[in-house]
Specification:
There is one protein chain. This protein has helices spanning about 15-25, 85-95, and strands at about 5-10, 25-30, 30-35, 40-45, 50-55, 75-80, 100-105, 115-120, 125-129. The chain is of the alpha+beta class. The strands form 2 sheets. Strands 1, 2, 3, 4 and 5 form a 5-stranded mixed sheet that branches. Strands 6-9-8-7 form a 4-stranded mixed sheet. Strand 3 (about 30-35) and strand 4 (about 40-45) form a beta hairpin. It is globular and about 50 Å long. The two termini are about 25 Å apart. About 15% of the residues are buried.
Length: about 130
């Protein structure tokens, strides 16, 4: 079994789409829209085969925007970039572009080498080896 995709509700799927295409090399599907429900989404595809669905619907609200506080629901998702050097390089590049780096790069107590950044909607992305 494998996870087919992860989905994230978003306020601005166009901004998120651009972020993941630019910063993580994702390629996007065409936009799906259900006018009856006011629902829109994109599937973002990554080279590894992983997919992220970003979704928007006016009736979905209420996400905590305090990135220093954990909340119920999606905690983070991780992307593997292959090496310690690649973690350092991508983290530095993202920081230079103004992407918030909230932790690392560092070696964790359980042996991972990682950094944690925030996408434009404050979702946590763990960048690991």
């Amino acid at each position: 079994m494998k996870i087919e995709h992860i989905a994230i509700w978003a306020r601005d799927i166009e901004k998120l789409k651009t972020f993941y295409e630019t910063c993580f090399g994702a390629t996007s599907s065409t936009k799906y829209t259900n006018k009856n429900k006011g629902f829109s989404s994109y599937f973002l595809n990554f080279d590894s085969g992983a997919r992220l669905e970003i979704m928007q619907m006016p009736s979905v609200t209420g996400k905590n925007t305090d990135s220093n506080r954990h909340t119920m629901g999606l905690a983070h998702f991780a992307v593997s970039v292959g090496s310690v050097e690649a973690v350092d390089k991508l983290t530095a590049t993202l920081a230079q572009e103004g992407v918030p780096v909230i932790d690392g790069p560092r070696k964790t107590g359980d042996g991972y080498y990682e950094s944690v950044v925030l996408d434009p909607e404050k979702n946590r992305i763990e960048i690991t080896v």
